[in-house]
């Protein structure tokens, strides 16, 4: 299996120097790169896209903006983004079915795949109960399932979810493709710190057990002492099914 085409390298970096370093240091070159809020606010969206096009001209762009606003505002934002060469664009399913439908309408004349965020992997069931005073019988998966359902009913084909929920969601909604962040290399899975991710998993389990269609990984690669070695370890881990 070509795992390179199923891995999105997250470029959550603070500077142009850091961005160029990671874009030019990894072999084999990433086929998908995720551009998120940190690097966009640091460098500007067009500058980020131009740098990726310069150093990784064949890479697909995963634009992780997590749009969430009233339907018309999100729809017009999506329309404005169709001028860029973007393959994936994230919106929050919590914005509701109408927002998702309006946003999807604006992608019709573009190559953008709209991706609905269900529940962020930084959330845990315990923290959600505490933060929002939810009942003791609240189950995070039920929320993910409802958000996946309205995403599908709005016409979207992709969702972002925890790998811990991916398999069950795909069993219920076979038409959906799942994108799973919260990926950690096997030797880091049981470390004291998982950064701000609450629900993490290894690449091989994400593919073999969770049936993820695409995984997202960033910090375990670019924060490693040797990013190239970590990148090779990632690719090897994907094959350990």
Describe the structure.
The protein is of the alpha/beta class. It has one domain (3-238): TIM Barrel (Alpha-Beta Barrel), CATH 3.20.20. Helices cover 42% and strands 15% of the residues. The chain has helices spanning 16-25, 37-43, 45-55, 71-81, 97-105, 125-132, 140-153, 163-172, 203-208, 219-222, 227-238, and strands at 7-10, 32-35, 60-67, 88-92, 113-117, 158-160, 177-180, 214-217. Helix 4 links the parallel strand 3 and strand 4. It is globular. The termini are close together.
Q: Care to give the gist of this entry?
A:
The protein has helices at residues 16-25, 37-43, 45-55, 71-81, 97-105, 125-132, 140-153, 163-172, 203-208, 219-222, 227-238, and strands at residues 7-10, 32-35, 60-67, 88-92, 113-117, 158-160, 177-180, 214-217. With 241 residues, the protein is α/β, with parallel strands linked by helices.
Q: How many domains in all?
A: 1
Shape: globular
- Radius of gyration equals 17 Å
Task: Give the biggest beta sheet.
Answer: 8 strands, parallel, barrel
CATH homologous superfamily label: Aldolase class I
The strand count comes to 8
Q: Would you give the CATH topology?
A: TIM Barrel
* Gross CATH architecture: Alpha-Beta Barrel
The stretches of 5 or more residues where confidence is low (pLDDT under 50) are 190-194
Please tally the helical runs, counting DSSP H or I stretches of 4 or more residues.
11
Overall structural class, as computed from helix and strand content, comes to alpha/beta
Strand order of the largest sheet: 1-2-3-4-5-6-7-8
Average predicted confidence as pLDDT: 91
Order of helices and strands: EHEHHEHEHEHHEHEHEHH
Distance, first to last CA:
11 Å
**Percent range for helical residues?**
40-55%
What is the percentage of strand-forming residues?
15-25%
CATH class call: Alpha Beta
């Amino acid at each position: 299996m070509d795992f390179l085409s199923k891995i999105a390298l997250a470029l959550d970096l603070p500077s142009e120097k850091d961005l160029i370093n990671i874009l030019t240091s990894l072999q084999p070159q990433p086929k998908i790169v995720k551009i998120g809020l940190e690097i966009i606010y640091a460098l500007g969206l067009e500058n980020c896209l131009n740098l990726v096009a310069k150093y990784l001209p064949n890479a697909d762009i995963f634009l992780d903006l997590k749009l969430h606003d009233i339907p018309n505002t999100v729809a017009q934002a999506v329309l404005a983004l169709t001028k860029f060469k973007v393959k994936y664009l994230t919106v929050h399913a919590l914005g509701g079915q109408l927002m998702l439908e309006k946003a999807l309408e604006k992608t019709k004349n573009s190559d953008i795949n709209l991706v609905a965020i269900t529940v962020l992997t930084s959330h845990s069931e315990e923290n959600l109960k505490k933060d929002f005073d939810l009942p003791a019988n609240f189950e995070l998966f039920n929320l993910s399932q409802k958000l996946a359902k309205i995403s599908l009913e709005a016409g979207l084909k992709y969702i972002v979810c925890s790998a811990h929920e991916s398999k069950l969601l795909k069993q219920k909604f076979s038409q959906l493709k799942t994108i799973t962040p919260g990926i950690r290399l096997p030797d880091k899975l049981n470390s004291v710190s998982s950064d701000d991710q609450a629900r993490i998993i290894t690449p091989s389990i994400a593919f073999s057990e969770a049936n993820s269609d695409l995984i997202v990984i960033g910090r375990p690669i670019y924060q490693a002492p040797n990013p190239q070695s970590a990148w090779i370890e990632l690719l090897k881990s994907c094959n350990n099914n």
